[in-house]
Amino acid sequence: MLGHQYTHSFLETAVASVNAGCNLELSYGMRNNVFMHIPQALAMGNITLQMLRDRVRPLFYTRMRLGEFDPPAMNPYSSLDLSVVQSPEHRNLSLEAAVKSFVLLKNVRGTLPLRAQDLSSQHFAVVGPFADNPRVLFGDYAPVPEPQYIYTPRRGLEMLGANVSFAAGCSQPWCRRYSRAELVRVVGAADVVLVCLGTGVDVETEAKDRSDLSLPGHQLELLQDAVQ
Known about the structure:
This is XYL2 arabinofuranosidase. It holds the Pfam family Glyco_hydro_3_C. Keywords: Glycosidase, Hydrolase. By secondary structure, the chain is mainly α. The chain has helices spanning 10-20, 38-43, 49-65, 82-85, 88-101, 153-159, 180-188, 219-227, and strands spanning 123-127, 163-167, 192-195. Strands 2-1-3 form a three-stranded parallel β-sheet, sandwiched between helices. The longest helix has 17 residues, at 49-65.
C-alpha cells in the first residue's frame, strides 16, 4: 500500500491492514516490517487489543490444527521420505495430472496425438532451450528437483523408443547466443520437429517481471528457422 501511495508510512499501513482484516504479513529480508508497528498503533489507540485478539486467533487456531506445536513424533508426515513421495502410486498420479493439464491450442492436420507405433519409424528433432534442460522446467516456488525423476521432452521420447536428434540452439532461456547452423542441421533431417520454448525462472519470477510478452532473446528467430 505504501508503494502504491495508498498510505504514507508503515504505521499507517499497519493500521489500515489490521482494520481491513489482514492478520498476516508476508515479508522477506525486512528487519523493520509493517506489522512491527502494531504495538505503536495500539499505544496510540488506532487499533484495540480486542481487534488484535480477533486477528491472531484464527492464525494460531490454524497452526494448532496443522500440528505445528505438537512433538515431531506425533506428526505423521515426519516419517515420510522420497520412497513414499516418489512411490509408483504417487508418480502415476503426477503423470495423470500432467497429461490432463495440457492445453491444445491448434491441431493442424491432426498431427497429435503421435501414435506409439509410429515413433520408431519417424525421425524426431527436439530443439530449443527447454528441450533437454531439467533445471528450467520448474517454475517459481518449486521444490529442489531430483534429476532422476525429471523427464525432459528429449528424455521422454527416447524412453519411448523414438529416433531422436537434439539441438538446444541456445542453452538458456535468455537465448542471447544462438547457434542457427546447429538447429538447421538437426531440423532439416527430421520428419517431426518439437520446438520447446518459454521463459522459466531465469527470465521471470515474483518481483522480476518482463517488460513485454515477446519470447526472450533469439527464441523467436529459433522458432522461425525451425518452421522454415
